[in-house]
């Protein structure tokens, strides 16, 4: 799809993933994206086989019970946020809530 072409051409695109074919394959990258981009309040999903606005959905991060805690933790220690072990723990918490 278009995302791969833009990426190959090094065109700036919003954060996201592509080539996701089922719900279980979506949750792990979504948890990673939310952790990496706490400033994105809404994630949009688009199914490639739909047209006319069908196949679009959105998800607001504020609806997650753990999201305020993530923001507080980030604000308390922003320099630690990129730590791989911390990210793995936080993404696991997000995954459980998303599932």
Automatic annotation (TrEMBL):
Q: Give the residues annotated as coiled coil.
A: none
Domain called IQCH-like ATP-grasp: residue spans: 1-98
The protein's matches in InterPro entries, at most eight in alphabetical order, are given as: ATP-grasp_IQCH, IQCH
Q: Would you say which domain of life the source belongs to? A: Eukaryota
Q: What is this protein called?
A: IQCH-like ATP-grasp domain-containing protein
Question: Which organism is the protein's source?
Answer: Calcidiscus leptoporus
């Amino acid at each position: 799809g278009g995302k791969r072409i833009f990426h190959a051409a090094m065109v700036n695109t919003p954060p996201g993933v592509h080539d996701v074919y089922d719900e279980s394959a979506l949750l792990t990258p979504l948890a990673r994206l939310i952790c990496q981009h706490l400033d994105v309040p809404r994630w949009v999903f688009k199914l490639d086989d739909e047209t006319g606005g069908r196949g679009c959905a959105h998800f607001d991060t504020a609806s997650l019970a753990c999201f305020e805690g993530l923001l507080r933790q980030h604000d308390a220690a922003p320099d630690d946020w990129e730590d791989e072990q911390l990210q793995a723990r936080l993404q696991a918490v997000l995954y459980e809530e998303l599932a």
